[in-house]
Amino acid sequence: MKKYTAITLSIISVLISLSVACLYWIDCHDVFMIDSSSYISVVVTLLAIIVTIVLGWQIYNVIDYKEKVAEIGNLKKDYDLLKQNIEDAKLDVEFVACQTTALNFNNQQSYGFATITYMEALLTRLNKKNVIDVCEDFNWIFDELNKVSRCPFYKGDHSVMKKYIEKWNNEICSHKNYAFVKTRYEKFYKELFEAQHWIQEGN
To answer: In the listed set 44, 75, 106, which residue is the last one of a domain according to the structure?
Structure first.
C-alpha cells in the first residue's frame, strides 16, 4: 500500500513537471489567457501542494514506524513470556521425574541415590523464575533429604555417590537463588556430612 502510494505521488510529480516544461516551451499565453506572473504562481502553488503532500506522507510514515516498533516490542514480550512458560513447564516435568525416581530409590532403601536425586530435584526448583511459587516443593524436598541423610548408604555406592553429591552441592551453592534455601540446605548438608563420614574421608 505504501509502496504504491509513493509511486503514485512520484508519477504525479513527473507529470506536473512535464506539463510545466511543455507550457514553458509552447507559447500558449493567449490560449489560456494567463500572463507570466500568473503562470509562475500556478507552478509554485502546484509544487507547494506536492511538497506538502510528500512531507505529510513522511510524517505519517514516522508515526506508523513508531507504532510498528511498539508492536514488535509487544511481540517480543509475548515471546519472552511464552519462552519462560515453556522453560517452567520443562522444569516441572524434570522435577516430577526426579521426584518419582527418588521415591523409587527410597522404597528400595538405596538412600544414597535417593539423596542425589532429591538434590537434583532441589536444583530444578531453584531454576524456576519465581521460586516463591514452589515453596511447597522445597518443603517436601527438605523433609525427604533430612530423612535419608541419616540413613545408611551402601558401601559400594560411595565413589559414585560422592562424585554426584559434590556436583549437585556445587551447583546448588553457586545458584543465583541459593539464598532462598541457604539456611535449610546448610542444616541438611551438615547432617549429611556428620552421618556419612566417607564424604569427607573418601572411599
So the answer is: 75
pTM value surpassing 0.85: no
Q: How many domains does the chain have?
A: 2
Q: Are 198 and 162 in contact (CB under 8 A)?
A: yes
CA pair distance 190, 174, nearest whole angstrom: 17
For 75, half-sphere exposure in the C-beta direction (CA atoms, 13 angstrom radius) is 6
Which of 15, 48, 75 terminates a domain? The answer is 75
Residue-range definition of the domain harbouring residue 151: 82-201
Angle at 80 (CA atoms; ends 84, 121), nearest 5 degrees:
15
Cα–Cα distance for residue pair 123/127, rounded to 1 Å: 6
Kindly state whether residues 86 and 160 are assigned to the same domain. Answer: yes
Q: Sorting pLDDT into bands at 50, 70 and 90, what band is 9?
A: low
CA distance 103 to 150: 16
Residue count of the chain, please give it. 203
Q: Which three cell numbers stand for residue 169?
A: 552441592
pLDDT tens-digit series, residues 117-126: 999 999 999 9
